[in-house]
Structures are given as structure tokens and as C-alpha cells.
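Hi there,

I know you've been waiting on this one. I reran it after we fixed the sequence typo, so this is the corrected version. Both the input and the resulting structure follow.
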Amino acid sequence: MTDKSRGRTWLINDSKKLEQNVRAFQSVLPNGTELMPAVKADAYGHGGVLVSKKLNEFGVKAFCVASAKEGARLRAGGVEGEILVLGYTSRADLNQVIEFDLIQTVIDLDYAKMLKDWGKKIKAHIGIDSGMHRVGEFSSRTEEIADIYKIENIEITGIFTHLSSADSDNPEHIEFTKEQGRKFRECLDDLRARGCSLGKIHSLNTTGLLRYSDFGGDYARVG
């Protein structure tokens, strides 16, 4: 019999299925790579805190979200581990990043300079634009990226890019994704040569993990 008090629609989360999904992804991870589930948009409508705390139980220790507000909600709900904010956080909202122990994405050198002027110690990953042209410093601008590492109040703990066409079977998109991987690797090599301590490296999304696992990295941002 239907419980009418639930309204017209409802969602049932099956923790056993969730754990099966986690184990399935873990079985195809490259050596040294850990899961960093994308739980933005309230875990795509499945309940961000609920899902993330279950993932904690399954051994997941890193997450990514779209905004500082989302990250704060997870932390306030008891989620443990690293929480990376993928999107832009305005100066007015940066205190949330500090208060809730989040990691902010540095989208380019200008944003890094704003964080420098803000003056507070903050943990961050650097976003690299390897071809998507949405967010991140261009992969070719390694001198500018290296300058971000020199800003004293920004503790860079990682660097990443996004494979925008990893889910496509189009031969041109496949070549484009491989080119993104090449640009990202060249960027990282140049930064290492400049003496930068890169931190955690990640580029793989869900289909990136399934199709381009040879790209490797410290995290796979599945979701």
C-alpha cells in the first residue's frame, strides 16, 4: 500500500547499491589513485550529507562540490575528509572556506591575487584549463601558475584539470581528450622544473576513469 504522506514522488537510497558502486569504481582505479566523488547539487538530488557520510563509512576520504555553501553544509552535517570547492567563491563568502575547513579552487592568477590581498591562510587546488575554456589558468601559462605557488597565504595542496569530452565516442573528441592529457602533463612537468611542489594531481572524471585511466593521478572525481 502506498504511503500518501510521502507526496507524489520520493527517493529511496540503497546503501548496499551505493557500496557496490564504490567497490566497482575502486576496482578500476589506477595504482595510487583514490576516489573523490562529486557530490555537488545535493549529491545530484540524492542527499549530499546522507550520501557523503555513507561514503565515509565505505572509506572515501575526499569529496568535491560546486560551492562553498555546499561544502559548509556537508561539514556541518558531519562529513569527514577533504572537501574541494570546484567553483568560484566570492570574497564575501571566503570565510566559509576557512570556518568549515574546505579547499578552494584557484581559477587563475587574478583570483590568486585577490586571495593574497584578502590575507588569510587558505588551502587551495589550482584549476588548469587544458582545453575546456570554462575555468582555470591556461595550461601554457606555467610562469603565471608558478607565481601562484609563491603566494605565502595560499597553501596549494593540489592541481587539476577537467576532461570535457571524455564521455564522447567521436574520434575528434577522443583525440581532443588525449591532447588535454598531453597539455596537462606538459604543464605539470614544467611546474616541477620550476621547483613547484604540486600536491595532489587529478584529471579523471567518471568516464575519464573508465576510458582514460592511464592518465593516472591521485584522485578520480566520479559522480
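Quick highlight: The chain has a mean pLDDT of 94.

Best,
R. S.
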